[in-house]
């Protein structure tokens, strides 16, 4: 009889202890919190790890980061390159001095390490959830893209293939 009660006590302890290890679920929800933080920043035109957002002016960028390491024109406009990220503006120019002081950032490119999103597509989906769209460029190079549409902004994570880690991250106005 005492053995039965003793074993029942142990069994109850194991069950209770087992329930308390459900902290993995609680920890998992911290991932949801991280996810929420990343996507909440995207909703307002900001990218985790880059301390300036879309809509910032040339003047604000220079005040915050100083002169860029290099400049040039890209798809959306004049681009300033900094360590780990670049900012594209709404206007084109031949030099930083020619770019209007009030020209605004319309696109941010960032190194995945800067944003702390360095995994493969399935890992990223585990962090950010189901993307708005998945794109496989099967025209020759098998580039794979995950897109997350949030408010007026589009977050793109580009991979060399579906089996490679993130190559670069882009946030821009839709």
Structural features, described:
The structure is a single chain. The model is unreliable at 1-32 (pLDDT under 50). The chain is 34% helix and 26% strand. The protein has one domain. The chain has 174 residues and is of the alpha+beta class. It has an eight-stranded antiparallel beta sheet. 24% of the residues are buried. The termini are far apart. Strand 5 and strand 6 form a beta hairpin. The longest helix has 21 residues, at 23-43. The radius of gyration is 23 Å and the shape is globular.
Mean pLDDT across residues: 84
Shape: globular
**What is the spatial order of strands in the main beta sheet?**
1-2-3-4-8-7-6-5
Total domain count: 1
Note poorly predicted spans. Answer: 1-32
Order of helices and strands: HHHEEEEHHEEEE
How many helices? The count is: 5
Content of β-strand: 25-35%
How would you characterize the largest beta sheet? 8 strands, antiparallel
Helix content: 25-40%
Radius of gyration: 23 Å
Gap from first CA to last CA: 72 Å
Number of strands: 8
**Structural class, judged by helices and strands?**
alpha+beta
């Amino acid at each position: 009889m005492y053995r039965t009660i003793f074993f029942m006590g142990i069994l109850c302890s194991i069950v209770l202890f087992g329930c308390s290890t459900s902290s993995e679920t609680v920890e998992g929800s911290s991932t949801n919190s991280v996810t929420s933080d990343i996507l909440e920043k995207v909703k307002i035109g900001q990218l985790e790890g880059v301390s300036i957002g879309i809509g910032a002016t040339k003047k604000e960028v220079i005040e915050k980061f100083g002169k860029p390491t290099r400049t040039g024109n890209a798809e959306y406009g004049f681009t300033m390159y900094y360590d780990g990220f670049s900012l594209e503006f709404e206007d084109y120019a031949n030099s930083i001095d020619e770019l209007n002081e009030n020209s605004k950032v319309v696109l941010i490119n960032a190194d995945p390490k800067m944003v702390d999103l360095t995994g493969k597509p399935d890992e990223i989906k585990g962090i950010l959830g189901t993307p708005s769209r998945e794109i496989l460029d099967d025209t020759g190079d098998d580039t794979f893209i995950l897109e997350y549409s949030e408010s007026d902004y589009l977050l793109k994570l580009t991979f060399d293939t579906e089996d490679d880690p993130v190559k670069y991250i882009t946030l821009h106005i839709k």
